[in-house]
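Budget justification note: compute hours in this period were largely spent on complex prediction jobs such as the one shown. Inputs:
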Amino acid sequence: MLKKILFRNSTNLQFIFATLGAIIGMTALLLSLQLIMDVQSFHSNEEELFGPNSVVIQKKVTKFTSIGMNSTEFTPEEISALEKKDFITDVAPFQSADFKVGISEVAGDGLPHFYADMFFQAIPTRFMDIDVNWDWTSESEYIPIVLPRDFIMIINYGFAQSQGMNQISEELLMAARLTIHIEGNGKKEKMIGRVVGFSHKISSILVPEPFLTHANNLYGNGRIQNPSRVFITTKDNSYGELDELMNDMNLDVNKSAIDVAKIKTIIAIVIGIFGIASVIIMLLSLLGFVQYSQLVLSKASYEIKTLVRIGYAIQRIVNTFIRQLSITFGLITAGSVAIMLTIKLLLVNPWLKENGIAIAGSSLWITLIAALICFLLFIASNYINIKKAVNRLGSE
Amino acid sequence: MLLEFKNVMPFPLKDYQHEETSVWKRGFQINFPKKVLLNASSGKGKSTFVSTAYGLRKDYTGSVLIDHKPIQEFSLEAWIELRRTRLSAVFQDLQLFPELTVWENLILKNDLTNHKSKEEIDSMLDLLGIGDKHDQVCGTLSLGQQQRVAIIRSLLQPFELLLMDEPFSHLDEKNASIALELIAKETDLNKGGFILTTLGSHHGFNYDEELKL
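Corresponding output:
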């Protein structure tokens, strides 16, 4: 009966607008939150879209380099200058082999007969963009090797055809062992190696750092070499500064790495703007609801005053309002979650799938908790507002 | 319940020439249960008196005390508790819910106090001659009928003091007497008292005390 008295005069138009606003705002908020989490779980070619922004930098080879007038090596001074840049959080020079390397097949492992001169480089494990078994000790059965993904393309679609060789699949290459020929410091050695993965980001032939250190000590010719390639990790959204640095130092950067950094920044900005807009819509609809309850309160002011005069407790009157609003907000929250899920499952997920982006099924829990927090925020702000108003009316 | 008015002067009445016998001049102190008549002509502040004692008006100088405590210091919660258990009122403007039926108006109060059974409420309605209006919306009743609903509502709670502001102004003498008889009976059941303000008629009743404005 209290409900009948208190909501008798409430108009529906304002209520409908406030409800619509709340549903739109909340859906947008939940959707952008869910999208941010989905994007974070993107894995395209083993690279995390929101993982660390690591890029390889090297100096451009110019005609002066070729005639020996300038070097592509990074001096220790240049490396410490890189370390001092604000937007660079990590610097690691590539370590190069100080000995001759060649590879050939291991007979019987399915690879055609071949021999190729090679080189080895190593980087700290934290910069590896793929997850492979990268441990090496002097007792290890084989040396793990990571090749650039492009390498196998060059072999299969260029080299193999021109040489009349069979093409080899990634799986075959990874299954087969390789003979590693090492020559340097007056010694020659054969070892077994195995390709354990393909890197999208690093166009080099990588071996574990401990192995290269060990081999350089044994077979190195003792030349002190400055690194010619350096791995750096930049802060998010700093590709502008990176661009500037490239121009200043005449650097060459893996283009796709820069593109990924750009895409990351753009996606982050787009979702961020969407998120901020939805927060604003939410706040406006919250305001709309506070106003709506203000309106209901002022239209029911006679009833509230009279109820207090005949002995009704403030809390009981407030509870009547809150119970009613809780039902409304509950439906709004549930509706928003349902719409968000529908959009995600029927529109976003198929689109991502069509475009070849796999989502590692990010959890809904955080979004649901966010919805609950919105719900509680709505109730709390209305509760405070209604309690204040009923107290004021009751005291009149 | 001890009700005391000490030098109480409502702002709207302060420029008015009050008689020496007026409550506004000499104050009073009554220890209820007592049945009191407050007799005054129009404009002397009967409604102001009731509203002040009921804690609705605060625009006065001096102090009103209930059981020696100044009522201006009562919290809203204390007032609500007081109005549910010790102090009841019939307002001049009745303060009913016009969109609710007679029965809903009464149940709204009785649900809060559980003071009377449904049968008792029904017999009160019959006694005051509005038993057939049970399910009629209050807003459609005549003022006299609404007054009787308001009177019954004021009796649906325990009270030590019942304040009534011209409760019979739209009733004929016969119906007023029946209503006053019911009020007196319920007052005695509650071991309480009342203050009845009127424009002059005694409604044929013997009061314990009489106040003037």
